[in-house]
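Our collaborator T.R. sent over the components below with a one-line note: 'Predict the complex.' Nothing else. No constraints on interfaces, no templates requested, no preferences about which chain binds where. So this is a plain run: every listed entity goes in together, and whatever single assembly comes back becomes the starting point for the next discussion.
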Amino acid sequence: MHAGPKKAVDPSPLSWNPRGCESERFAQFCRKFLRLPDGNPLVLRDWQRELVASVWDADPCPRLAAWALARGNAKSTLAAAMAVYVFMTGDHDTSVDVVAVDERQAGIVFDMCARFVERNPELSSRVQVFKDRLVIPSRGAELACLPASPAALEGRNPDLCICDEGGRIQPEVYEVVALASGKKPTSLVLLIGTPGPQPDNVLARFRQHAIDFPDDRSQVYREFSAAGYEDHGTDCEHCWRLANPALGDFLYADALAALQPPKMSVNHFRRARLVQWVTGSGEPVLPSGLWDGLSTGIGIPDGADVVLSFDGSYSGTDATVLLAATVSPTPHIDVVKIWQRPTYAETDWRVPILEVEQAIRDACLRWNVIEIAADPYRWQRSLAVLSAEGHPVVEFPQTVSRMSAATAEFLTACRNGQLSHSGHAVLREHMGNAVLSEDNRGGRLVKSSRSRHSGRIDAAVCAVMGYSRASWRATHPRKRFRAASFA
Ligand SMILES: Nc1ncnc2c1ncn2[C@@H]1O[C@H](COP(=O)(O)OP(=O)(O)O)[C@@H](O)[C@H]1O
Ligand SMILES: [Mg+2]
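Returned assembly:
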């Protein structure tokens, strides 16, 4: 494609007489003006029309919308077609942004837009093509494809902003985009994507909001997914059909068959091809039997030097865990106590905070507690009270960088037999529930999905924290006679 504004452009309006509601007009535009790479006109399928109608025909028109679709179901193609439609048919000064996760992806979607224009003489005669944007000078209209960086997006004010790969976009980027919207009487931010590898991705949050607030008309959420069928195999054709409306049409079943695990990880396939909201790789964190092999079946003798590790929850969806680890280069780990909501029905159950505080005091009497490592989140007051009583509380905020480093050390120690444990049943269960979620900052233990029913992992996270501090204390003993240095 030759970039550059040199050619003369036709200032006359497009000649066409669309009828019907916005989604019908869009479908007519696609059929009349847009051609796919194979030269065929873009004929929207009913499910594509309905998706578009959910947003453009809604009254009131939502400001925010998200669609979750499996890979290969024309997310990027539809995004490009919608972008070109608004760009070509909008009012004066129409601006359309397509935001992609990175430069490369932005280039792919921009190319789709530019080629839609290029393949049709009526469109191409009206449009100037630059390196990364299309312009209609007579109307002051612009279509830009941008990489998802806050700097690139700050201060923009598009009528339509489509974020491709909404499951992988950084939350800060989405916030910039969403906050910038609303400066025009109508505008739409549309996220399209598959579930992201991180549990807290933008698309997953959007979906959770739709589940929690089904009456919120300011946003629209649609998904084609096999969510709820995570117990079915990845080769289940019923699940394939649920999540892939294009299957048997322009998406081929043999392509899904060819991608079966172990060619890709189980959970990657589930996210990308079945739109199931699972995180991590789906592989166990440790090889089968390894954790059990580290069990001695014995607790920690009274009076031993230990680090207490505490991971507190509030409502009981997660467990509150108090765990002890011996101060040693090869720590021995035991669960002191666990509090968790007895059944899911009792939603008003609360953690007995005073009982938890007392359990920590009792543990300090039982062992020689060198340190109480705790994530202060929501437990600041209890930790302040214990600290004021003279207990050695050390805050261990569970930040991404800290937990990534501690998790790597913990898993290495397990594999090398450099830790042991008492064989506590709940810790065993939580180790089995945890999956490893990896990104460029390292790996962390996470639940296998955001669902309330996915098993708890808090004791495993607490063991990571306890191992980290206990092994560190073994090599960095506290100076016992600090007062002497003032003499
Ligand atoms: N009716 C149709 N609508 C959209 N895409 C179609 C249609 N028929 C065939 N295709 C093709 O399907 C493919 C969809 O790919 P793409 O948009 O990249 O999917 P995704 O972004 O969901 O992974 C494209 O190659 C496109 O040309
Ligand atoms: Mg795509």
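Summary for T.R.: The domain at 22-223 is CATH 3.40.50.300 (Rossmann fold).
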